[in-house]
Amino acid sequence: MLPNLKDTIAAIATPSGQGAVGIVRLSGPESLPIARKIFRPQRKEVVFESHKMIYGKIYDDMRLIDEVLVCYMAPPNSFTGEAVVEIFGHGGTFVMSQLLAVALKGGARLACPGEFSYRAVLYGKIDLTQAEAIADVIEAKNNQALSVAQNNLNGLFSKEVKALREKLVEMLAHMEAEIDFSTEEIEEETLSVRKQKLSEIVKRISDMLKAYQLGQRLYHGVTVVICGRPNVGKSSLLNAILKRDRAIVSDCPGTTRDTLEETIHYRGISVSFIDTAGIRETHSKLEQIGVSLAYEKLKYADLKLLVLDSSQSLTQEDLRLCEEMASPQTIFVQNKSDLNQHSLFQVALKPFSSIKRIPICALKREGIDTLLNMIYEQIIEKELETDTIFLMKERHRLGLEQAIQSLSACEKGMEAHLSMEFLTVDLKKAIESLETVVGRVTEEDIYDKIFSTFCIGK
Predict the structure, then answer these.
(1) Conformation bin of residue 7: beta by default, left when phi > 0, alpha when psi is -120 to 50
(2) Among 41, 96, 281, 291, which residue's Cβ finds the most Cβ atoms within 10 Å?
């Protein structure tokens, strides 16, 4: 259910817990009157000028709550576009709750999650993609995710979508003019010119869709599963990557029965490494559970590291795993490279020449940096640029895919020489799909779908 936009809302805008400074934010028509009720400036004749700090004290009737700084932001020059007041007090949990309680007692309502951002969208301060980027900035777990979120917050993605929409609107207007004023002297576009324009738009949207998976990797990080038969050095590899002894290493086969997961940050990307039980035929119920868990993790891996002992000839289990894992998402890790390589090792790998491989010595931690760099290149696939547009939300992907479908139908209609009336229907659908991405808030449940996931105060 949508919140009442006529209310003046208030919330604590800083994280809970102890801190030097905390902020209580108010937004709405009664923000300044409420501030006047509860705030006593140091200078009696003070004037609330927009975007200027005023020192004073907050009182609950006669009871002193805190010494504060108050900043008033006049509409429309505020985050929400409404009158906004921010109270900067001491950042203790209790004092913040008291400041909020006084604001609510003065006539404000507690803000719903994301309600400040929701109002900013409705009053045209930001669009939907920028509002979603606010949450992405807050939740960013690495440098790359933060950079992408900041780009989207600054409107890089929405500007591109709006530019494509404008091109389609221009094309639609020209086609409708030809329909409505067919008897007038209107310069008609040739079919080839129109198809070329449409093709360029389709290609641009397709390029943006290709960046969706990479955007997910940048934001959420990636999962790399370390697998192989027992005693090839999987746990030693995990320890070498972490540069500490996290996994138990033993000569006894089947030491690892469960999965071990640890996350590192490499070149701005969060990479979760999962060490799995040695995969082999076994009668041990515990080992069977471990093998099942290993295969379960492999299903959802972004990348697989198949560890092989290069000092031995490949066993039948090794060869079976090579066949099962052979894909562009697999790297063959040739462990124990400090020992003499077995004469038949490379011979056995000849059928898998297309799979990337790298020699390492996990025990001596040799070749690990090269392996990490190979993982990064495999994951990212291309050089990142500061102005690259990444899709961060499933909603964005669906909207662009729907636009592509409508534009493809329009292209087919042009090929079949359908009348202009049919072509304009598909163009209108494509335009509507792009508008849902950047934000015509027409559905009442848009708040529940997007803004209810925000933290209160944002």
Answers:
(1) beta
(2) 96
Closest CA to 164 of 118, 207, 201: 201
Q: Are strands 39-41 and 52-60 parallel, antiparallel or unpaired?
A: antiparallel
Q: How many CB atoms lie within 10 A of CB 381?
A: 13
Q: Residue with structure tokens 């907050």?
A: 58
Give 328's DSSP letter. Answer: T
For 260-315, the pLDDT digits (tens) are 889 888 887 889 999 988 887 777 777 778 888 888 889 889 899 999 999 988 88
Following DSSP, what letter does each residue of 141-156 receive, concatenated?
-SHHHHHHHHHHHTTH
**Within this chain, do residues 310 and 226 fall inside the same structural domain, yes or no?**
yes
108 is in which domain, residue-wise? Answer: 9-127
8 Å CB contact between 200 and 381: no
Residue 405 half-sphere exposure toward CB, CA atoms < 13 A: 9
The amino acid sitting at 12 is I
CATH number of the domain bearing residue 213: 1.20.120.430
Question: Where do runs of H (alpha helix) occur along 181-263?
Answer: 191-220, 234-242
Residues 270 and 311 in one domain: yes
**Which tokens hold the place of 146?**
């933060």
- Which of 352, 380, 408 delimits the end of a domain? 380
Q: Cα Rg for the chain, rounded, in angstroms?
A: 30
**pLDDT of res. 257:** 59
* Cβ contact 309:413 at 8 Å: no
State the CATH number of the domain containing residue 21.
Answer: 3.30.1360.120
